[in-house]
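sorry for the late reply, my laptop died twice this morning and i had to redo everyting from scratch. anyway the thing you sent over, i finally got around to it. pasting the sequence first so we're on the same page, its 247 residues, then the predicted structure underneath. double check i copied it right bc i was rushing
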Amino acid sequence: MSLFEDKVAVVTGAGGTMGRAVVDALAAQACRIAMVDVRAESMQAAVSRHGARVMAVACDIRDAAAVDAAHRRIVDAWASVAILVNNAGVLTNAKIEATTPDSWREVMAVNADGAMYWSRCVVPGMKSARWGRIVNVGSLASKTGGLTAGTAYAVSKGAITALTLSLARELAPHGITANAVAPAYVRTPMVTEALTEAQRQALLLQIPVGRFCEPEEFAHTVAFLASPMSGFITGEVLDLNGGLHMD
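ok and here's the structure:
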């Protein structure tokens, strides 16, 4: 029997490369997973692959009311959420002078507001169960000011770090842990399409392990922090960057 047997997990940004990898990792541990993404069509392949163990929930996480409604749908169908993976995010490479008010608000709404809305929804059920795991997806950008990432993105991921620490401090007495993963340059369209070949080669020269992170490596790290075996770890921001940044 898996340590995750039938625990209900919510994974936001589940239609993207990293989200799908997390869904696969948790499904392999017998979780029931509510995949959350703004685009319903992006989740269909995973639903077909995993069957009844997976539920696709289209939701704009920028909208607090939409998050509340999506959460109610999940609880009504299954049970209270035991694991929350705040993975949804958008990237901008615009530095401060090119950052418009609209783009700033968009990045903060998806990357920070959505994580707060989902955390707020799931915490009461986790408290009642006296067990919960919140795993937030941060970024190396919050520690470095953004190497290739833009101002709004770096700041939004700094907010994720602060949210993680705040939740960890507040929720530890209730059996709930909150941790973050701070990846750098996972092999996704953000790397393969948003960066030029020259940028990719320059980055590879700076990464001691000499390659980009694979989505499955990221998902394995998230699954560990979501597991019962990580119960003595909370308030941690775990670097996943191949040695690009060491602290």
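DSSP finds nine helices and seven strands in the chain.
thats about all i looked at so far, will dig more tmrw
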